[in-house]
Amino acid sequence: MKIALKFNDRFGTAELNGDVTCSRPALGSWETWTVQPLDGGLVALRSDHGAYLKAELGGGEVVHADASSIVPWEQLQMGADGSFKTHTGHYLNVVGE
After folding, report:
1. DSSP string of the chain?
2. Rounded Cα distance, 19 and 41, in Å
3. Does 31 score more than 90 pLDDT?
4. Based on CB atoms within 10 Å of each CB, which residue in 36, 42, 79, 96 is the most buried?
5. Please, which residues have CB within 8 angstroms of residue 66's CB and are 6 or more apart in sequence?
6. Are the C-beta atoms of 63 and 56 separated by less than 8 Å?
7. pLDDT-derived band of residue 96, with 50, 70 and 90 as boundaries?
8. How far apart are CA 97 and CA 84, in angstroms?
C-alpha cells in the first residue's frame, strides 16, 4: 500500500540525502511511501528511493529516510486515524522550521 504524509497542505518528502522535509505542495513519487507490514501489527515506511523512515533515538527527535534495514527505530504502529507511533510511544509530528 502506498500513502502520502500531508501536514498543513504540504507533503512529506524523502530527499536523496536522507532528510525528510514537509515542503512540497504537490504529490509526486518522492512524496509517496510504501507501507511494509511487519510482525506484531507494526509497519515500516519505505521511500521512493528504497530507504526506510526512521525515528532517531526511537522518537522525540528528528526523522530521516536513510535506513537500509528495519530495526526498532524504523518500526511504527499505524493508528486507525492515520497516525504513526514509534516503539517508544512518540507520534510522528511536524515541527516548524
Report:
1. -EEE-EETTEEEEE-TTSBEEEEESS--GGGEEEEEE-GGGEEEEEETTSPEEEEGGGSSS-EEEEESS--GGG-EEEPTTS-EEETTSPBP-----
2. 26
3. yes
4. 42
5. 17, 18, 51, 54
6. yes
7. low
8. 21
Q: Does position 7 have pLDDT exceeding 60, yes or no?
A: yes
Number of CB atoms found within 10 A of residue 21's CB:
15
Given a contact cutoff of 8 angstroms between Cβ atoms, the answer to whether 84 and 76 are in contact is yes
Q: 61-80 b/e with 16+ CB inside 10 Å = b?
A: eebbbbbeebeebbbbebee
For the chain, how far is it from start to end, CA to CA, in angstroms? 30
